[in-house]
Each structure stands twice: as C-alpha cells, then as structure tokens.
Amino acid sequence: MKKFLSVLILMVAVMCTGCSLFKTDEALITVNGHPVTKKDYDDLFKLQNTSQVDPEKNQGLYLIIKHNVVSELVIKQLIKEEVKAHRIKVSADEIGKSLNDAYAQLGGQEQFDKFIKNVYGINENDFKKTLKEEIEVNKLIDKIAPFSKTSDGEAKGFYQKNKEALFNQPKTVRASHILIMANRDDILKEIKNKHRNMSNLEASRQATDKMNQIKAKAESVLKLALANPEGFDKLAAQYSEDTQTSKKGGDLNFFSYDEMTKSFADAAFNTKPSNIYDKVVQTDYGFHIIKVTDRKEAGIVPFDEVKAEIKAKLTQDKKNKAFQAYINSKLAKATIKYKDSQYDPKVIEKQLKEVAKNFTQSDLKGLKK
Description:
The protein is of the alpha+beta class. The protein has a domain at 168-300: Chitinase A, domain 3, CATH 3.10.50. The chain contains 13 helices and 10 strands. Helix 1 packs across helix 2 (59-85) and helix 6 crosses helix 11 (303-333). The longest helix is centred in the last third of the chain and has 31 residues, at 303-333.
C-alpha cells in the first residue's frame, strides 16, 4: 500500500576501457589526505544504480550516476571531518529508534528486510550505517544553524503563494485498519525453500491453503469488530500486524483515493464514517478490516491546519541552506586528489559531452516515437 511506504531510502558496473584494477581498500580519491576507497565507490554506486544501468547500453545515464556518486563521496568525506571536528556522537539507542521507525513504515522487520534486500541489495547492518550517517548530518545541521526559525508571517506568506498548488486537497477519508499480514508470493517462496523437492503444483496448493487459513482468521476478527464497533481500537492493538498503527487503534489518518491500493481505497471511500466495511479487504500486504472514522470534501486546507507543518518545512529549508553553504565553503578549501583520472568529475563531464555530441538527430526522433 502506497500509504505505508511513506520512504525510505539508497553494482559493481565499472567501465573497463583504460581502467585500473584496484583493490577494494585502495584509495580512488583523497580528500584532505583522507582516502575514499574502491569499496566506498562500489557500495554507493550499488545503492544509486537501483535500475542496474548497463554502461554499454546507456552510457550517458551511467556516467551521470558515476558523476553523482563521486561528488557525493567527496561531500560525505567532508561531512565525516566536520562530524569529528564537532565531536558528534550517535548512540545505539538513536539508531535503534530510527530502525524501529523504518520497520513500522513497512509493516514490520520481516517486510523491511525483504524490501531493502530486493530493492537495494543490502542488509540491516548496511542500513544501520546509513541511519548513523543520517543522524550525524542532522546533528551537524543543528550545530551549524541552531537558531533558524520561521515566523507566523513567513508561514502565512508561503501559504498564500502556494495555496492552490500545495493545499488544494482532493476528497479524503480517515480510516483505521486491522492488518493480518499475508502475501501469497512470499508464502509460496517460503514453502519452496523449505521443501525443495516439492512439485510446483503441491507448493501452490499449500500456499493457497495457507492464504485461506489467514483469511479465515481475518474474517473472525471482522466478526468481532462488527459485533462491537466501539472496541475497534482494542482489537487493533490485539490483532493488527501493522506495528506502525496498531498502538494507535489502527489509525491511518486522512488519505486520498490515490494514496491507497484500489481495493483498500474502494472499500474506504464507499463506507460512511463510524462504520466498518463488512468484508475483509485483500492487498499485497494481507487482509484488512477497515473502519472509516471521518471524511473531508475536496477543497483548500485552512491555514491553521497546516501552519505547524509549513513552519517546520521552512525552518528545515533554512537549516539545509545554511548547511549547504557551510559545506560548499569547506569544499572550496579542500585538497582533493583523484588517484585514477576516470573518477575525476572533469573527466566524467568531458565523457558526457562526447556522449551528447554523438546523440544524433535520428536518436532524438526515435525517442519521440
């Protein structure tokens, strides 16, 4: 469900023409004498090249990713220096809290682990390193721009200027749900991994049986909810496997039709407030029992409802701008050496110009078809 992925998120595919064969711990770049290794490059490239761009088939896009990765590695090294200089520390508890938030956004640890493995090819330890860096950056921003604030007047001005573009909301519904998790593809894969000699037909039959068992459980919870709608919060806390919402009575807050998968949206938008949809609803996440609690018609959101959100955004924008200026000043003074010229941004930019030059008019016509 799109709403649950409110995302997170981060190949070894090196062009070999004239390239050196580096060891993973050998420096490709040095920033103020500190090394950026081949492993650093490969790890970040893997995170950014989620579409697995082939350099032979799409050299231009490959070079853009490469340029971005090299530039980001330099910035990351400068940030490391500043984190050390400002004596910023991140505790295991802080990382754990952020990790739990990430679990909640994806419906639990199991779903989270599958997501980062399938999409980014990383494990939880890799993700923890990314979280640590993110927390360090946030703490560094607070040190560099600690007094950034936004007045009510600034917030009001932003609202008036962007009222139609940003605050003209579609019709929305507020609903709570109880999720009994089940994904047939995952169940089938688990069965096949456990019983490698089992036929596809038998594995499919067992997966269907398991789905039916889980659906029956969801239907039994639905009966309890329909019998006592006022007790929905307690049922969510007891039965829901959506760890992000279960402790809040299953509350998903307001959402538009397009923020949910079709089956969920159809049920929610066809149920009146204070009513429970009379069937379990299946999505890729499992089976849902849905209670609609409120709805809003389409229109401009009043300023008072979004003032706090606007002020937080504008304050963060000010901090980010100050942080960017600060890092740019450090970048201007930094001593950066590219040990292999293929990782020099100027060389990559020159290659990009050559690619653009060779992009013929016929290629452009082909794109328009």
